[in-house]
Structures are given as structure tokens and as C-alpha cells.
């Protein structure tokens, strides 16, 4: 029997389920929990790549990441790896996956394959709760704005990628697309008003210069990442995190020098975002 245990400011741990064997009723329950919490954690799962894909496809078509190295034999699964000799990690700054796409991803499923002895946690932030705690005047201002999101500075030809991470990324020539999205969206599942900007890929507000945008964006980034809006997940082997990219940020903590961390990530297609 599925048990849901809300944790902290955002998210819930789900117990009593084997993701290899999900009934139609289980899936409906999980979809309701996902809409309500925006972030679900499942521990002690034994998932083959095929089982991981099967679970992901129950939520929608797969969004194949065009920049990450795929798992060998499984082009729809991105490999998120850090080796002992590497200084930097993937996702080590606050961001939202695929906000640079015209139709941003619904969510991402990250599965723990190999973990360091200590560390390697992931931080999550809730963007609906962050919007709720703004003043009415700020809410009104933000509702009128749209923002530009881009992958050029992260994955493009001008991106500064450390030499020891160069083999983790590819297709720099495909980092050409910018996207515009409302700064405040009506979340497609929960209906809540949610902030939709992030430090990784948002570059400016539409109609504003980057210099004009920087101060307000910096305020929003600090506000969203405040402790009362965040949760720190400690991984265990076989754990799977499933987050809603329209409702959350995440950050992979890089605190395990000289060790390996290997995760498999599948991203699911979303839908156009509306204010």
C-alpha cells in the first residue's frame, strides 16, 4: 500500500511501492501526489534501464537531452557522472532542467547507481512556495513580465567547460535556441502560481537589458533559495527522485572529491507554459 510522507518545505517520500510493478490505481495515486508535492522520492528501487524507461513513459514522451552523454545502449537516458579525477560536477548550481526549450520539460527522474561514501546530496527549492511569500506588489509586477532562457552560455560553443568535463557534453552546435516564458506561470497540474526563472538558464526579462534585469533576478534567486523554501535529499543506492521542472529548482552538491557519483536521468516532455 502506497504511503506518502511529506518532508520539509517541498516534496514527499513515497513508500510501499515497487516501481517495477505499478497498477493503474498506483499510477493515478502517484500522479495526484506529484501534482500536490512537485517532488517525489522513492528509495530501495532495483531498476534496470528498461524498467526506468518504462516508468518514465507512463508520464509522457521522453525528452532526449541533446547535450549530455547518453548511457551506452540507451540514448533516452542521460548519464550524470563525476569521476574521482574531476574537480567539477554536473548541475552544481541552482537550475531548472530544459527551461531553455520552447516547451519545457515536465520533469526529470534521477536514479542513483553509484554514490560516494559521504556527500553528493541534492538540494531542491519550491518555486510556488517562494511566490506565495512575496509581497502583493511584487507579485503584481512579476505577473506582467516574461523572461528569456538560453542554453548558449552553458552548452554552446562559447561556454567555458573545464577540460576534465569535456567528454560529458556534446552537440555545442545545437545550443542555438532561446525561449521566452512567463515569469509567473499557472502550474499545469496544481494550478498554483509559480515562479519560473532560474540562475542556470534565465538571462534577462523580455524588453529589459541584462544589466537592468540583474538586480531583480538576483533578488528572486536569493528569495527562492531561502532555507524555508528548500529541502536537502540524502541519496542512497537505488533511490529515485522525480521532480517537476515547472515547480522546482535543484542543485547537486559537489562535496565528495576523489570519489565517483553515477546517476541515470530521464526527462519527460512537458507542455507550453501559460501565465
Task: Describe this protein's structure.
This protein is of the alpha+beta class and 275 residues long. It has one domain: 4-Layer Sandwich (Double-stranded beta-helix), CATH 3.60.130. The protein is built from six helices and 17 strands. The strands form four sheets. Strands 1, 2, 3, 4, 5, 6, 7, 15 and 17 form a nine-stranded mixed sheet that branches. It has a three-stranded antiparallel sheet with strand order 14-8-16. It starts with a strand and ends in a 7-residue tail after the last strand.
Offer a concise description of the structure.
By secondary structure, the protein is α+β, with helices and mostly antiparallel strands.
Amino acid at each position: 500500500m502506497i504511503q506518502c510522507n511529506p518532508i520539509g518545505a517541498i516534496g514527499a517520500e513515497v513508500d510501499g511501492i515497487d516501481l517495477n510493478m505499478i497498477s493503474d490505481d498506483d499510477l493515478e495515486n502517484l500522479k495526484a501526489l506529484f501534482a500536490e508535492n512537485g517532488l517525489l522520492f522513492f528509495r530501495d528501487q532495483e531498476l534496470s534501464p528498461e524498467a526506468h524507461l518504462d516508468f518514465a513513459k507512463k508520464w509522457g514522451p521522453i525528452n532526449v537531452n541533446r547535450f549530455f552523454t547518453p548511457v551506452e545502449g540507451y540514448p533516452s537516458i542521460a548519464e550524470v557522472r563525476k569521476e574521482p579525477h574531476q574537480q567539477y560536477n554536473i548541475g552544481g548550481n541552482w537550475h531548472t532542467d530544459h527551461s531553455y526549450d520552447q516547451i519545457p520539460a515536465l520533469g526529470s527522474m534521477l536514479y542513483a547507481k553509484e554514490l560516494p561514501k559521504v556527500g553528493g546530496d541534492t538540494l531542491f527549492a519550491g518555486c510556488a512556495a517562494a511566490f506565495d511569500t512575496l509581497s502583493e506588489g511584487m507579485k503584481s509586477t512579476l505577473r506582467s513580465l516574461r523572461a528569456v532562457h538560453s542554453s548558449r552560455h552553458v552548452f554552446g560553443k562559447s561556454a567555458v567547460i573545464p577540460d576534465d568535463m569535456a567528454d560529458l557534453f556534446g552537440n555545442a552546435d545545437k545550443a542555438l535556441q532561446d525561449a521566452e516564458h512567463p515569469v509567473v506561470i499557472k502550474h499545469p497540474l496544481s494550478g498554483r502560481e509559480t515562479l519560473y526563472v532560474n540562475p542556470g538558464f534565465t538571462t534577462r526579462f523580455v524588453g529589459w537589458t541584462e544589466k537592468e534585469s540583474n538586480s531583480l533576478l538576483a533578488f528572486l534567486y536569493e528569495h527562492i533559495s531561502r532555507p524555508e523554501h528548500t529541502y536537502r535529499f540524502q541519496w542512497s543506492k537505488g533511490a529515485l527522485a522525480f521532480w517537476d521542472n515547472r515547480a522546482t529548482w535543484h542543485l547537486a552538491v559537489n562535496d565528495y572529491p576523489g570519489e565517483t557519483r553515477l546517476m541515470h536521468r530521464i526527462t519527460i516532455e512537458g507542455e507550453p507554459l501559460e501565465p
